[in-house]
Amino acid sequence: MTTSDPHGLATPILLFVYGTLRPSLASAAAHALVHDLERAGSATMRGVLYDLGPYPAMTRGDGVVHGELLCVHDAARLRALDAYEECGGPAPLFERVEGIARRADGVEVAAAAYLYVGPIGDGVVIAGGDYAVAARARRPTS
Predict the structure, then answer these.
(1) What is the C-alpha to C-alpha distance for residues 3 and 73, in angstroms, rounded to an integer?
(2) Among the CATH numbers 1.20.58.220, 3.40.50.2300, 3.40.50.880, 3.10.490.10, which is that of 8-137?
(3) Where exactly are the structural domains of the chain?
(4) Are the C-beta atoms of residues 103 and 41 closer than 8 Å to each other?
(5) pTM as predicted
(6) pLDDT by residue (tens digit) across 49-99?
(7) Per-residue pLDDT tens over the stretch 4-56
(8) What SS3 class is residue 136?
(9) Which helix (H) or strand (E) holds 76?
(10) Beta carbons of 57 and 50 less than 8 angstroms apart
């Protein structure tokens, strides 16, 4: 992508998503933001993953968080993702940070991720660091 595209990014961003932005877990609002993004495969990042009820929260830490890499080419889409994650403003819940993700093939790549900066409160650590597994486990069976 070149910078001549006013909506594009000079360099596409790999975005590590671990919760409600994962295409398979996305709500209707999140699905509209991620459904057409290029998927770059499964990956992990260092951190601790909490279940806060309506959504998960990744913080810095020595654990392993499982997720997916998405490729974001459009600056407007990145701003929309930031807004969805409530980045910025006077009381942000998340901040987008740069880190290192390890792809399923073991290769490490630079990737952005949304780290939680709000209060953990009664949040519970998700053992194993995979929100998809935790979400499946708490679904009622019929």
Answers:
(1) 11
(2) 3.10.490.10
(3) 8-137
(4) yes
(5) 0.89
(6) 999 988 999 999 999 999 999 999 999 999 999 999 999 888 899 999 999
(7) 444 567 788 999 999 999 988 888 888 889 999 999 999 999 999 999 988 99
(8) helix
(9) helix 75-84
(10) yes
* Residue 41, number of CB atoms within 10 A of its CB: 14
d(CA 123, CA 115): 15
Quote the CA–CA distance of 100 and 58 in Å, as a whole number.
14
Q: What is the C-alpha to C-alpha distance for residues 10 and 4, in angstroms, rounded to an integer?
A: 9
> What tokens does 81 get?
């993702």
Q: Is 53 exposed, middle or buried (0-12, 13-18, 19+ CB in 10 A)?
A: exposed
